[in-house]
Design the sequence.
């Protein structure tokens, strides 16, 4: 990871989880709320995200219990928008400006995650999520209205190791991959990336806090900027609103709200940035 005694190298790709990382909700729980089943679905979701159950043990079960309609899944886009981590738009703008390929990598439902991605300037081809199948006969088919979701299309993201399997396809010489997420499926993908940053600003999960290369405890994404950008690339942010967000991110590392699991690496990271900004 380190090149030379005082250098931090920019990443080429940043993969961001959606629910619990970019937004302060779990989309599947919000859909369950419409059916009065949020407590049960929240418990199943937390069991999977905390690593107590494999994702494949709960994914189809949750969909079968809720059976959301396409209209309800589309409504999630607005729910996501209303629950964005406050500095997410500026952080993503800065990553784009730094020449980094930003991807959304989520076990959430594709139509909603893609809608959020478009709001944040992420094209559909860089959104990796789960597509659902609708019952074509249960709705008002004579008006072209589909019935509720009856299951998920085949996808690696239905499985505990799904993110790891997808990320393996992005590994290539010259690429540096950073993954940011809050759950066990993100942690499972750690071997496939150069750096895994656990995010605890929405849900605190001890396993993630203890095992992540970097752990972000504050409810902001600003610490991603000094992680993802080299100091040289960060100079592109000077004079823009994102410059203040970068400084907030560095302050989070100085105060311990964001930290490397390895204390020596943490100090070295601060020295590298302190000598530049």
Sequence:
């Amino acid at each position: 990871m380190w090149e030379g005694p005082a250098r931090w190298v920019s990443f080429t790709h940043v993969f961001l989880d959606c629910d619990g990382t970019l937004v302060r909700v779990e989309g599947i729980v919000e859909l369950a709320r419409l059916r009065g089943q949020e407590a049960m679905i929240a418990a199943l979701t937390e069991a999977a995200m905390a690593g107590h159950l494999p994702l494949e043990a709960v994914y189809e079960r949750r969909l079968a219990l809720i059976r959301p309609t396409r209209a309800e899944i589309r409504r999630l886009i607005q729910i996501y928008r209303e629950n964005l981590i406050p500095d997410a738009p500026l952080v993503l703008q800065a990553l784009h400006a730094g020449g980094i390929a930003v991807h959304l990598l989520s076990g959430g439902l594709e139509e909603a995650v893609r809608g959020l991605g478009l709001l944040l300037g992420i094209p559909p081809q860089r959104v990796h999520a789960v597509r659902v199948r609708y019952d074509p006969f249960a709705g008002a088919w004579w008006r072209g209205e589909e019935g509720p979701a009856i299951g998920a299309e085949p996808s690696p993201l239905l499985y505990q190791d799904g993110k790891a399997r997808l990320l393996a396809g992005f590994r290539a010489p010259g690429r540096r991959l950073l993954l940011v997420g809050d759950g066990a499926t993100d942690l499972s993908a750690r071997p496939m990336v150069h750096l895994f940053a656990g995010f605890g600003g929405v849900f605190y999960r001890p396993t993630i806090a203890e095992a992540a290369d970097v752990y972000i405890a504050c409810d902001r994404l600003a610490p991603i900027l000094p992680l993802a950008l080299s100091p040289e690339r960060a100079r592109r942010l000077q004079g823009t609103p994102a410059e203040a967000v970068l400084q907030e991110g560095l302050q989070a590392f100085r105060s311990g709200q964001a930290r490397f699991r390895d204390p020596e690496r943490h100090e070295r990271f601060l020295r590298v940035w302190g000598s530049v900004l």
